[in-house]
Structure prediction request, 796 residues.
Amino acid sequence: MKRYQKNQCRHEPVCSRVSDWLRAGIILIFVVGACMAWQFSVGSLRGYSQPTEAVPPVTSSSLLQAGDEAFRRGAFEQAADAWQHSAQLAHEAGNLREECDAHVAVAQSYVVLGFHTRAAQQLELAVAIAQLVGDLSRQAVALNLLGQTYLTAGRPEPALETLENAQRLAAEAHDQVRMATILHSLGTTQAALKQDDEAVTSLKEARRLAQAAHLETLAATSTINLAKMALGANQWQEAQVLLDEALTQTRALPNSHDKAYGLISIGLGYAALRGHPPSGSDDRLRVVAAEVLEEAGETSQALGDARAASYALGHRGHLYEQERRYEETLLLSRLAVGYAQQVHAPESLYQWEWQTGRALKAKNQLDQAIPAYQRAADLVQSIRPEMVGGTGGTAASFRESSGRLFFELADLLLQRSGGTSSREEAQPYLLKAREAVELFKSAELRDYFSDECVDAYQTRPTTLEDVSRRAAILYPIILPDRTELLVSLPDGMHRLTVQVRQEELTEEVRAFRTLLQKETTREYLRRSQRLYDWLLRPLESLFGQFDLDTLVIVPDGPLRMIPFAALHDGKQFLIAKYAVATTPGLNLTDPKPLARDRIEVLSAGLTEGVQGFPPLPNTEEEMKAIGALYKTHRLLNEEFRVPQLEREMKENPFTIVHIASHGRFERDVKKSFVLTFDDKLTMDRLNQVVGYFRFRDQPLELLTLSACQTAAGDDRAALGLAGIAIKAGARSALATLWFVNDEASSALVIEFYTQLKDPSLSKAMALRQAQLKLLENPDFQHPIFWSPFLLLNNWL
Prediction:
């Protein structure tokens, strides 16, 4: 492959998506420094030595050195194996310091491979050993790496606290060498927390100490990260000066994994400078970026470091993609795929498969592009979310970072379906398009709950189409330039295209949600009718061909924030036509009708105002009404504490758990909770408490949260509400999008439970009857009172 030639093409970047993807790649500048500093921290405690020709005996020391050499080549799995063996031998010999070093080294390889939990376990053990022998420097090193582990796992707050402890220990030990590496780690963590001034101060001091101690690798890494900070602050001239300095420093290093990644980071930095004068002409920056990435590839290949070679080739291919030189893009992307496959690196392999697909799509080779996209999507499913979304809080959300892959695949499949000659021939493409978005939704839910098994909690999952012949299933797919409506009916799947752009739809949805919560006006109506015209009116003639009573919505993105029941056709609300159910995905948890003859309820709630939240005076009447309808255990006010709730759940086989208390679903799942008398029941704790039912023959039939709310305008916050039934292992959940007037809420909930006694009604129909009754009440006609109640997951 000849070097990148100046002035071959002057096209601007293909689209903002590609530019965003390249900027995300600059995260390497942020991360590589951690690996380079780690290598120094671990090795300097025991002293590196150059490999010799003689074959050393197999000892813990020789295995430590063998692991070091493997790591420098990028053979991380081999390094981990050597270091694990070293730890075992050191333990057997009673050499605690060497055992500590080995555990730290194993953790280093685990972090690079993405196994953050395993890395943290190794480091916690190393800290304990270092404390046992009273070695402050080793404690500082282990805590430094533990902080970096937290950072790469997307937990910058505990990372900062851990690194500050490491800094204190290094100061007590008067260890300036260790202080340099810790300050570097501290700077990257502060940058992740947007503490930019503090980050720059820490990185500059790390560089000064590294230069004073002749630690060339750490000095170069600190310069790279300072350049990254300048890029983030739009200080283009300063960024270029720092990148030039970093390039000189990095080129002077001996060939190693660290040098290769440093060059990759610098190449990406130069690429990011394009279009930002006075940093230099775009043509020159393109050439420099490509040459540095080519140098990184040559260094990687000389070392036999396939992982680094994959990144160097792949990112260089992306430069060609931006220039619309798709033949070169394809060649470099396929080479990058080959190297990534050699080392089983799905975190890079998916990127180059995706890039291959984009290039083929640009060449209008759809039948070749679709398999490349599919391989990339399958790979994303196999890796941890933090390896896709970025590191240390610096990356975009999972939807922004990887959602495009799935939606671009769906778009390709939809386009391909349009080229078929019959509806029957189009069906497989429509099913695959829907499945592509479904894969993304599952991954997004796992990312939100930080639980890779959240959707595995479903028992005996069944596809929606297999459940009812009287339900229509609406699956909107929101694309940048249009909205696709996939609807499943008794005769198969239908596709309708609405020329509404993603940006326009999102704006309308957010405006509707805001106006809907204004009780004193009917301003919402115009927005409600517009959304109906876009999302439902095109389907009316299809619906009229079947005897339907239920509309099941599988919403995505902004559509999760609104109640479809409140959409209006100009004469009546949607709820007047159909029962409306919502589900986050296509699969339902063991969909069976509720057995009315053996319902047993655990009813818990608050009437008093606690922890700064207002009282819910109608809760007691609500709980009494439920008790009059079903066999009920009650936990009211002071009785409603987490330990008591947990005890009741363990000892009794409840069918329904009803909680009448404040709850919030936030963008960050860690901030989402249900209020108890003296505590906040987090989503993880709720999962544990309700999760006892997963081990019984019958799962929980219904979880009701009658006073919760989601953060307005935040579709990621709505993920918590959408996934609550799945997370809790319940067949169904009834919850609210926003806090509802206490009197109206109690009236609707009581009517719902009353209707639920009728075995001829599904849960969705019972909710519809309750909503219609409120709608008939002059005091509660406004949809602010009845529409936010959503029946989630199984509606039978």
